[in-house]
Write a structure and sequence with these properties.
The chain is mainly alpha-helical. 68% of the residues lie in helices and 0% in strands.
């Protein structure tokens, strides 16, 4: 009898206990790398789903910034007299160059902010780092940006605007826009699991943030002094201004640019810690 009990105990499969990591490992960078294939497939799925049943397909990635650029050019430049702040840059090119990083940010917030609830069936059935879901939503907006960048290149050729050598720094500002978008999206997606009101807050937040960002007006119009310091607490101020400088050679980033960059990193790290803290309850609440 004792021999049979011991043999039965040996035959029982081992129990796997998954515990949340501690310390800096809580940020999930190593775990995210282990699931990089899942990140790739979810990103590709998000790209396909966005245009699968759209009549115009990827053409929307062209129409959206082009129509917005035309409206801004007529309304702000022709009617209200807002210029680019630089005589050699036409207002149409100036506006389109501001819309590109902004649309990357805004589209990321709209898609990643509700991504956890949208993938509720996946979250409740299998374990994987939940950070994959908002990250794949943000990365899924890159094709729109690349298509829009191609349109901007054509627009610059039409207006005979030659990019400066600072264009080598352009990937840095694109990365900064993605970091900012992911940081804010981590906050929104985690809060949306707990509070469904967030889905109504996101469009209002994007609209308000847009007017606080120098998209249709130059950074030279920002007041000096403490007003400028407060204005540069907006991470997208540095992103849009730096993007235009790298591409069009406009006003170079000053000391306050690093304040915007620091705010981007602060939002990202804080969002990452909050997301990882709330991750353990996602499957129960969603």
């Amino acid at each position: 009898m004792a021999t049979d009990a011991r043999s039965t105990q040996r035959e029982q499969p081992p129990t796997l206990v998954i515990e949340p990591p501690r310390g800096w490992a809580r940020l999930g960078g190593r775990e995210l790398w282990q699931y990089r294939e899942l990140l790739y497939f979810l990103t590709w799925r998000n790209i396909l789903v966005r245009y699968k049943q759209a009549v115009l397909g990827v053409l929307w990635a062209v129409l959206n910034p082009v129509i917005t650029m035309l409206v801004f050019t007529v309304l702000f430049n022709k009617i209200l007299g807002v210029d680019s702040g630089s005589g050699h840059v036409p207002y149409a090119v100036f506006t389109f160059a501001g819309l590109l990083p902004w649309n990357l940010f805004a589209l990321s917030l709209s898609s990643a902010g509700t991504s956890l609830v949208g993938n509720a069936n996946l979250i409740t059935k299998v374990y994987f780092p939940r950070l994959v879901i908002p990250s794949s939503s943000v990365l899924g907006t890159l094709p729109d940006f690349l298509i829009g960048f191609g349109v901007l290149a054509v627009l610059m050729a039409v207006y005979q605007v030659v990019p400066t050598w600072h264009v080598v720094f352009l990937p840095f500002f694109v990365l900064l826009a993605l970091v900012t978008a992911l940081g804010v999206s981590l906050w929104l997606s985690a809060l949306y699991v707990l509070y469904r009101d967030v889905q109504h807050v996101i469009p209002f937040l994007v609209q308000l943030w847009f007017f606080l960002t120098p998209v249709f007006y130059p950074t030279s119009e920002i007041p000096s002094g403490w007003a400028s310091v407060i204005y540069n607490l907006n991470p997208m101020t540095g992103v849009v201004g730096g993007f235009r400088w790298a591409l069009l050679g406009q006003q170079p980033p000053g000391t306050l640019f690093w304040l915007s960059a620091a705010m981007s990193l602060l939002v990202f790290v804080a969002g990452l810690f909050y997301f990882r803290r709330m991750e353990r309850v996602f499957a129960d609440v969603v």
